[in-house]
Amino acid sequence: MKPLSPWNDFQPRIVPFVDYQEDLDIVSPARTPHKDAEMSVTHIVLIHAAPDADQVKLAEVFTATEALKDTSVKDGKGYVRSVTAGVQNSKSGRGGGITHAIVIEFDSAADRDYFATDPAHDEVTRMMLKIMPSDIATVQVIDFTPGVY
Q1: What CA–CA distance (Å, rounded) separates 1 from 126?
Q2: What is the mean pLDDT of residues 16-39?
Q3: Does residue 24 sit within a domain?
């Protein structure tokens, strides 16, 4: 006899990820933004801290990074949508040595591009470079636009 479980009678349903138009070549407008629409950009920094990294120095870098939400200013106002950072805590075993992550969201690619030249960002970058490679072994950076595959 099988143990009782809510999964015993589970019947998988196949649900399409996107809706297709009649000719099956056009993705639904719900997934395809208008060509002139401003699209948000997510900037991800993946860090592999050295095993014997100075935790105080790392904390200083991450505190300064999280402050970028308030210290990054363009045309007299903030332009960074959000900043989050933290230590890797996945149990999957697939972290590839990554120990920390930073996620920064922008309303547009133009804001992300400006960020690359922002003095506040430059200061955090200098802080990171100062403790490499003794405390931060490697840094990987990727950007993506949500919903664009």
Answers
A1: 64
A2: 50
A3: no
* Least confident stretch, 29-33, 39-43, 139-143: 29-33
Residue 107 lies in a domain: yes
Please state the pTM of the whole predicted model. Answer: 0.74
Backbone φ, ψ for residue 51 (5° rounding)? -55, -35
Tokens of 20: 């297709």
Residue whose structure tokens are 């697939």: 94
Domain count, the chain: 1
Distance, CA of 60 to CA of 127 (rounded, Å)? 9
Structural domain harbouring 87: 41-144
Q: Is 133 within the bounds of a domain?
A: yes
Q: Which residues of 89-124 are buried (b: 16+ CB within 10 A; e: fewer)?
A: eeeeeeeeebbbbbebbbebeebbebbeebebbeeb
Q: Has residue 11 been placed in a domain?
A: no
